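Support request from a user on the community tier.

User writes: "When I paste my structure tokens into the form, the page sometimes reloads and wipes my input. The last time it worked, I copied everything first. Here is what I submitted, just in case something in the input itself triggers the reload:"
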């Protein structure tokens, strides 16, 4: 039985604005059936007026994170920590390679499964289950996957229409900003001490003679 309160959307790391709106629209509709709230984790450089537009697609809270997006380990740590904090019943990502990599890290850390490249998600109110649909067998069939407890999925771009959630109050400029840097290296077991030029002991001058 689903008891957790949130649905967590982790926006596309490379700022695919349309894909983000598709995902938030999809889970925004689900949130009404499930009586949950949608929390959005965003890594973009968009201004607050653009980010607050996510509210009209179903978001209840938007957390914009400023960090070094080239640092995959930092991205994974932030996303894992957010999942542990919010304890969502559903975690939704876009289907980009980096998002799938982060989803895999979350899956390993939290020991939950992933349904990849979803084209449909619905909630069975009687069974209190999420049902994910995805293509299989070279797209010749559509497979339905039922999940209990915390579920995670990646969503294929273009699978869902962008639609406004009329039941959601649009909030202007209410975006939570958080800042992370990678200065804290003390938890990293690998530290660069010194760099030296390698000398190949088996190399020899082309003009040298072998006796």
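"...and here is what came back when it finally went through:"
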């Amino acid at each position: 039985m689903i008891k957790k309160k949130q649905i967590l959307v982790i926006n596309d790391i490379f700022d695919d604005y349309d894909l983000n709106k598709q995902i938030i629209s999809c889970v925004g509709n689900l949130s009404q059936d499930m009586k949950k709230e949608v929390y959005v984790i965003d890594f973009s450089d968009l201004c607050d007026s653009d980010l607050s537009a996510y509210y009209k697609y179903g978001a209840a809270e938007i957390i914009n994170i400023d960090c070094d997006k080239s640092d995959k380990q930092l991205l994974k740590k932030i996303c894992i920590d957010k999942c542990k904090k919010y304890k969502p019943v559903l975690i939704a990502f876009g289907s980009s390679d980096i998002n799938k990599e982060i989803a895999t890290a979350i899956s390993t850390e939290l020991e939950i499964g992933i349904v990849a490249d979803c084209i449909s998600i619905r909630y069975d109110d009687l069974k209190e289950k999420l049902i994910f649909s995805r293509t299989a067998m070279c797209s010749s069939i559509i497979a339905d996957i039922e999940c209990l407890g915390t579920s995670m999925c990646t969503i294929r771009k273009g699978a869902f229409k962008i639609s406004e959630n009329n039941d959601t109050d649009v909030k202007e400029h209410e975006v939570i900003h958080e800042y992370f840097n990678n200065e804290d290296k003390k938890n990293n077991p690998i530290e660069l001490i010194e760099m030296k030029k390698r000398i190949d002991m088996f190399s020899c001058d082309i003009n040298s003679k072998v006796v």
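Agent notes: The reload is a front-end session timeout and is unrelated to the input. The beta strands are 6-10, 37-42, 59-66, 90-94, 114-118, 120-124, 129-136, 141-147, 151-155, 176-179. The CA atoms of residues 72 and 102 lie 8 Å apart. Escalated to web team.
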